[in-house]
Specification:
Helices cover 89% and strands 0% of the residues. It has helices at residues 5-44, 50-86.
Length: 87
Amino acid sequence: MSGSIAEVKAQLDEAFRRAEEVAGQLEGALTLLEEAQAMVIAATDGSEHHAVELLTSALVDTRDTLAHSLASLGSAVQEVRDYRDSL
């Protein structure tokens, strides 16, 4: 580890700030995906057409992947915060 502990902590704080910005953007994207899914379902009145099912499935898969990524990011940030606090 190069630099003083104070420098390392400062750099980690900046990384946390940026990670929080990304998390906020991901949460916004999740909301948009959920709204888009609801719009597709409402607009197609529950149609079972292959194209509608494909789009709905893609929106659900994307939302699930994004939610998982957001949770992973949160866990990783917390682990590094704990590490930072132990310095």
